[in-house]
Amino acid sequence: MKWEDAIKMYIEYLKIERGLAQNTIDNYTFDVKKLIKYLYEFESTESPLTIESESLRQFIYSVSKSLNPRSQARLISGLRNFFDYLIFENYRTNNPVDLIESPRIGRKLPDTLSIDEIDALISAIDLSLPQGERNRAIIETLYSCGLRVSELTNLRLSDLFFEEDFIKVTGKGDKQRFVPISPLTKKYITIYIKDIRPHIPVIDAHRDILFLNRRGKQLTRAMIFTIIKQLVEKTGLNKNVSPHTFRHSFATHLLENGADLRAIQMMLGHESITTTEIYMHVDRSHLSEVLNKFHPRK
């Protein structure tokens, strides 16, 4: 089996069997493609079925010199997933990555914005500009609904169920969930829909997309990052803020105010409650408060 054939089948498996989005597939295959390039440069004759741990160890060493422990761990994980797939399809009986130890890494937690900081970012939006109303609705939706950036850009007019106070969100693997939406967020989205969107020359293919650029097309992930970056610079906020920061702040603020972890899991669209726990850095002080407040043996 050639490397090109193996990676092609792996991509088809991730797309069809696992139902993963293209961005996720790209992340899964990035390091495998890097390995293939490395082997070709050294004119290696090893195939996906014959390559052993020592060759992989040399590859990892050669590319990891400039990588931090977290990136090294991601590299090893990506390769392990690929060879696990070959085992799953009965092309191999062993995973050569299993003999390679991943570096120890601490838990990396994203920055969390305070409510005052979120208010400051929203206040910095210039509402005299047409895109100002749109950007305010975007930031409010990111924070009040805890959306991933791809979920935000793919949000459609037909996904808005304002009478029921919910929006329909399409998450990873095209899995759908309903997320509650606050009156304030509904208000800002409605202003954008009624006052701004009618003046945009909408492209037919994007007619149902909620948030559009000035040319009537769907906003890109990069544009959302740019909008946030400009607001952070304008307010002078000394934090690394991305769309993910608002999602993390959404979950953290809910937890701090006594929300149920299971409910937060459902709103975030996490399959595992373990992911939610890590995501929200449940600290001991908060857990002690919950115990003292709710346990019958106080």
TrEMBL record:
Residues 1-87 form the Core-binding (CB) domain. InterPro entries: CB, DNA_brk_join_enz, Integrase-like_cat_sf, Integrase_catalytic, Integrase_recombinase_N, Integrase_SAM-like_N, Recomb_XerD, Tyrosine_recombinase_XerC/XerD. Keywords: Cell cycle, Cell division, Chromosome partition, Cytoplasm, DNA integration, DNA recombination, DNA-binding. It is found in: Cytoplasm. Residues 108-292 form the Tyr recombinase domain. GO terms for cellular component: cytoplasm. The keyword Transit peptide does not apply. NCBIfam families: PRK00283.1, recomb_XerA_Arch, recomb_XerD. Belongs to the 'phage' integrase family. XerD subfamily. Site-specific tyrosine recombinase, which acts by catalyzing the cutting and rejoining of the recombining DNA molecules. The XerC-XerD complex is essential to convert dimers of the bacterial chromosome into monomers to permit their segregation at cell division. It also contributes to the segregational stability of plasmids. Forms a cyclic heterotetrameric complex composed of two molecules of XerC and two molecules of XerD. This is Tyrosine recombinase XerC. The lineage of its organism: Bacteria, Pseudomonadati, Bacteroidota, Flavobacteriia, Flavobacteriales.
